[in-house]
Structure formats: C-alpha cells, structure tokens
Design goal:
It is built from three helices and five strands. By secondary structure, the chain is of the alpha+beta class. The chain has a three-stranded antiparallel β-sheet with strand order 2-1-3, with helices on one face. Strands 4-5 form a two-stranded antiparallel sheet.
Length: about 120
C-alpha cells in the first residue's frame, strides 16, 4: 500500500497558495517539439529542478490544517448497498458541515477536498 500523490492540478494550485515543502517527488515539465508534458519525477534518485512539488495527500492535508487552519472532513455512508464518500471543508472550529458531492473512492473525495480547501486560502 502506497500513499497517494496529489494530482497535477491540485499540486499547481498548492504552489500558487504557497506550498513549497521539499518532497521526494515533483511534477516536471519536458519540452519536446513545442509540446509540454507533465510527469512525476523521483527527486531522491534524480536531483532535477522541482517545477511543482508532488506531496502525498496526507502531507498536503496536514499543511492545510496546520498552516492555514482549514479542516477537511471525509465521511463514509452506504447508498444502494455501495460504500460512498463525501467531504466538507471549513475553518477549524467552524460548524460549517456542508457536504460537497458523492464519490466512490476515498482518495478521490480527499483529492477534491484538498482542492476546495486550497481555494479557501487567500
């Protein structure tokens, strides 16, 4: 079992919001024939320039909570006999518990929660 890295779009927004912790992996741009492609590079074995850090979901969640006081809550429930997940994002101590969508996968719900939490950072 391996920790899930955040997706490129979430990593890009995290960088815009000030996330710059050293991570062992990063999204790197390669330019070939006027096209750019992003991919994840392992920086522990290959010291490339870190264009956009690729933290794990749990590391980014901790940074959002500890640095910006934003809480992410993932709830699970059953509907039609299937396990589903939803999430809510709020400032720590706030009673705002407004779910934002239904997801079949915990990591997918967490990814969307991270993205929404980053949008709250000014």
């Amino acid at each position: 079992m391996e920790e899930q890295l955040i997706e490129f779009s979430t990593a890009k927004l995290a960088k815009e919001k000030g996330f710059h912790l050293n991570t062992p992996k990063a999204y790197i741009y390669r330019y070939q024939e006027h096209q750019s492609k992003d991919y994840v590079a392992n920086l522990t074995n290959n010291p490339l320039h870190c264009d956009i850090c690729a933290p794990t979901q749990s590391l980014l969640q901790k940074w959002i909570r500890e640095v910006h006081n934003i809480s992410i809550k993932i709830d699970d429930f059953y509907t039609n006999g299937k396990l589903r997940f939803d999430f809510s994002v709020s400032e720590l101590g706030s009673q705002d518990d407004n779910p934002k969508g239904i997801f079949e996968d915990y990591e997918e719900a967490l990814e969307m929660a991270l993205f929404e939490a980053l949008k709250l950072i000014k």
